[in-house]
Automatic annotation (TrEMBL):
Main location: nucleus
Domain of life: Eukaryota
Class of this enzyme: hydrolase
GO cellular component, one term: cytosol
Gene name, Swiss-Prot/TrEMBL: LOC127749034
Name under which the protein is recorded: Ubiquitin carboxyl-terminal hydrolase 36
Subcellular compartments: Nucleus, Nucleolus
Taxonomic path: Eukaryota, Metazoa, Ecdysozoa, Arthropoda, Hexapoda
Domain Peptidase C19 ubiquitin carboxyl-terminal hydrolase: 5-158
Species the sequence originates in: Frankliniella occidentalis (Western flower thrips)
Keyword Transferase part of the UniProt annotation: no
InterPro entries membership: Papain-like_cys_pep_sf, Peptidase_C19, Peptidase_C19_UCH
Length: 172
């Protein structure tokens, strides 16, 4: 049987006291928060601090500078999105920076990652660059280069399209 004593409980007061500095608006003491939001707030705060040190006052850092900070070097990767128009078969390739993957894990995390990176997503009402309007597009996403540290965010909530009826309850 597990016996806990109050002197062995870890209280992260140092972290709690820094919440206002890490996240000015998002994180509030006493409210349940998502760990992903916490990590994102820390990354954004670190990134902003590093960019402020790298750039002169008033200048906005360019895209390359943003990607080459310590945060970008550790947590930054690239994904490749390929959209294929189903009318004309034209493919467009887009590279986007990533720091995490959102994975739906109904069976296992590995199955969720495999499905995310192998099953094409069907997009309705797509307009391709050739001008095909209101067509269907198949979008596949692959990781072009993985970050040194990859955050895998598990989708915990599934929206179900279920309709049901409730019986009327008569009083008296």
């Amino acid at each position: 049987m597990l016996k806990m004593r109050s002197q062995h409980v870890f209280l992260p007061l140092g972290i709690v006291n820094l919440l206002r500095k890490v996240s000015k608006d998002n994180l509030v003491f006493g409210r349940e928060e998502d760990p992903h939001e916490f990590l994102t707030s820390i990354h954004q705060t670190l990134q902003a601090e590093l960019l402020m040190r790298e750039t002169k006052k008033g200048n906005k850092p360019d895209f390359c500078t943003q990607q080459t900070t310590a945060v970008g070097e550790i947590f930054g990767g690239w994904n490749l999105t390929v959209d294929q128009c189903q009318s004309c078969r034209l493919q467009s390739h887009t590279y986007n920076p990533i720091s995490h993957l959102f994975v739906s894990c109904e069976v296992s995390i590995q199955c969720g990652i495999d499905r995310l990176l192998t099953q094409p997503e069907v997009i309705e009402d797509f307009t391709c660059s050739k001008g095909c309007e209101k067509t269907v597009c198949h979008r596949t996403t692959t990781v072009h280069s993985y970050p040194k540290v990859l955050k895998v965010v598990l989708k915990r909530f599934v929206s179900l399209k279920i309709s049901f009826w409730l019986p009327k309850i008569y009083d008296g």
